[in-house]
Each structure stands twice: as C-alpha cells, then as structure tokens.
Design goal:
This protein is an alpha+beta fold. About 40% of the residues lie in helices and about 30% in strands.
C-alpha cells in the first residue's frame, strides 16, 4: 500500500484534488489518469481523490490505492506482455511447420507478434478500467 500525503487544493462533490509530491513511480501507475496539473517545475501534481471523509480545502491528508488493486494492474501492465512474448516464442516452431516458414524467422515473427498482441490487450484493459472507482485514490486520514 502506497500512502502519500498532500494538501487539499479543491473540493468537488465527492472528490478532492490533493497537491502531492511527484514520485518516480508515477510514470507506471495504473491510476495516473486521475493525476494532472503538474506544478512547481514538475515537482508536484494534482491528484483526484475520493473524499469520503469530507476533507476541507487546505487540509493535510493522506491518500492511497488498495494493494490488491495495485497488484492486479501491475500484473496486467507487466506480466501479460511477458506471457504474450513466451506464448509467441513457444508456438513459433509448430506454426512454422504448419505454414512452411524458416524456424528462425518464425521465432522472430511470432515472438514479436505475441508481444505486440499482449501489449495491445493490456492497454485495452487499462483504458476500459481507467474510470473505475477502484483506481481512484481514497483519502484515508485528515491531519
């Protein structure tokens, strides 16, 4: 569970926009679509969070995404492409025999095809799930 702290900049119906320090892990985060508006030369970002605790503007809060959700989307982003790569490589020999292709060329082509298809599949899942409530960070504590 990654717990971050920030200051509430703006409050809307059910949501709060929290100003938090930008981390290096942000680039691969599944819920990065809920973050925007980099400030101070890129050191800070505005994170859209669920405001079930009714944090007021200016409050110092901590927020997080559930560990299970984080693991699920990490699996989709990283492991599914590796599985596609392996599936393409393992099926290359049999497919080369069926279509009469050179084994080495088939290995290259089918490995890259497996990887490409898996990456496209992962990206489509992430795009469809982008608006899911489980991906929106939740305010856990008001200080």
């Amino acid at each position: 569970m990654s717990i971050e702290k920030g200051i509430v900049e703006k409050v809307e119906k059910g949501f709060a926009y929290v100003r938090a320090q930008r981390k290096s892990a942000c680039a691969s985060c599944a819920s990065r679509s809920h973050c925007s508006g980099l400030h101070d030369g890129g050191n800070y970002m505005l994170v859209k969070t669920s405001n079930q605790l009714q944090a007021p503007k200016g409050a110092l809060v901590s927020f997080q995404i559930d560990s299970a959700t984080l693991l699920k989307y990490t699996f989709i982003i990283y492991i599914v492409p590796v599985l596609g790569l392996l599936l393409g490589a393992l099926s290359a020999g049999r497919l080369a025999t069926l279509i009469g292709m050179n084994n080495t060329l088939a290995l290259i082509v089918f490995t890259l095809c497996g990887l490409g298809l898996a990456v496209c599949f992962s990206r489509s899942i992430i795009r469809r799930k982008r608006a899911d409530a489980e991906l929106i960070p939740k305010i856990k504590r008001i200080y």
